[in-house]
Design goal:
By secondary structure, the protein is an alpha+beta fold. Helix content is 41%, strand content 18%. It contains 9 helices and 9 strands. The strands form 4 sheets. It has a 3-stranded antiparallel sheet with strand order 1-4-5. Strands 2-3 form a two-stranded antiparallel sheet. Helix 1 (4-11) packs across helix 3, helix 4 crosses helix 6 (169-181) and helix 8 (259-269) packs across helix 9 (278-294). It is globular, with a radius of gyration of 22 Å. The two termini are 28 Å apart.
């Protein structure tokens, strides 16, 4: 009780009537549930409900399916893993409830490449450095080339469990991981200059700022002029919000989670199709290590 899901229900003005599904028992034997189910005071047409949610949670966008009937019963599930988006929305809601203007800015719109191409660049960096590591260690051969080609096709070359079968894979993976760590979250991957400029404009009192939007395809890039004339607090919701490359953040907040929790959160959101891959695990481990260093 009293967690993110309950707070989301409060923000939406809904009465909690139960949980989504049992998740265990407490120390007194009481039933614990994940998520929350609740009811709005009155049914709302979907056309009214969507802007209502966007306003209450200060959401930049919503995904929905039209069920063809009014909305009254709600189910929410937030906060699995780290839950940056949910926490940022709640902070904005409570700031506004206290009469303090707030806007949530997503840093996910500021990588230098769309997700598809950024994933490909991460993979390229890992594999090129891994190959070079094998050459420099004198371990590269025709048989290694053939085996590695098969692992690439299966997308298992980052799996540490294969090191026993292929001892040279240790050098390959360690070399690739080192190069990947030098890329992730750096200025080569993320456009810190543009974000630093936005934070500088906001500190200078700009009433309107052009903010970039980025989808998952090359043609889904655009800018919106956002009115910040009544905004007192700008919340930057981003994995790299405490990076040394970022300037102008007054209060950094770290929401800690393990790579396993983050994977579970991505899986629940269907964030990508390779959530459980060894390569994704490696990326999350590297990002977590950098978060710990900056904390």
């Amino acid at each position: 009780d009293g967690g993110v899901n309950d707070a989301l229900m409060v923000a939406l003005g809904a009465e909690v009537t139960g949980g989504l599904e049992p998740s265990g028992t407490d120390a007194d034997g009481g039933m614990l549930t994940c998520g929350r189910v609740g009811r709005l005071p009155e049914p709302m047409a979907l056309s009214d409900f969507l802007p209502y949610v966007a306003d209450r949670l200060h959401a930049n966008g919503l995904r929905y399916v039209d069920g063809g009937r009014p909305v009254q019963k709600l189910a929410v599930c937030g906060g699995s893993g780290v839950g940056k988006s949910e926490i940022a929305s709640l902070l904005s809601h409570y700031f506004r409830s206290a009469g303090i203007g707030s806007y949530t800015l997503s840093g996910d719109n500021y990588p230098r490449r769309i997700p598809m191409y950024n994933d490909a660049e991460r993979n390229r960096i890992f594999r090129v450095a891994g190959l070079r590591g094998l050459v420099d260690a004198g371990l590269y051969s025709a048989s290694v080339r053939e085996t590695l080609s098969g692992l690439w096709q299966q997308e298992t070359d980052a799996d540490p469990a294969l090191r026993t079968a292929y001892p040279w894979l240790t050098v390959y993976q360690d070399s690739g991981r080192k190069a990947l760590a030098a890329y992730l979250g750096t200025d080569a991957e993320q456009d810190y200059n543009e974000l630093n400029g936005i934070l500088s404009e906001f500190h200078a009192g700009a009433e309107s700022i052009w903010l970039k939007r980025m989808g998952r395809t090359e043609d889904a890039r655009w800018y919106d002029a956002v009115d910040l004339s009544d905004t007192n607090v700008l919340i930057l919701e981003w994995t790299h919000g405490n990076s040394d490359f970022l300037h102008g953040v007054d209060i950094p907040i770290l929401l800690n989670s393990t790579p396993e929790q983050t994977r579970a959160h991505r899986r629940s959101r269907s964030r990508d199709g390779k959530t459980d891959s060894a390569f994704t695990t490696m990326v999350l481990e590297i990002e977590q290590a950098e978060l710990d260093r900056c904390a």
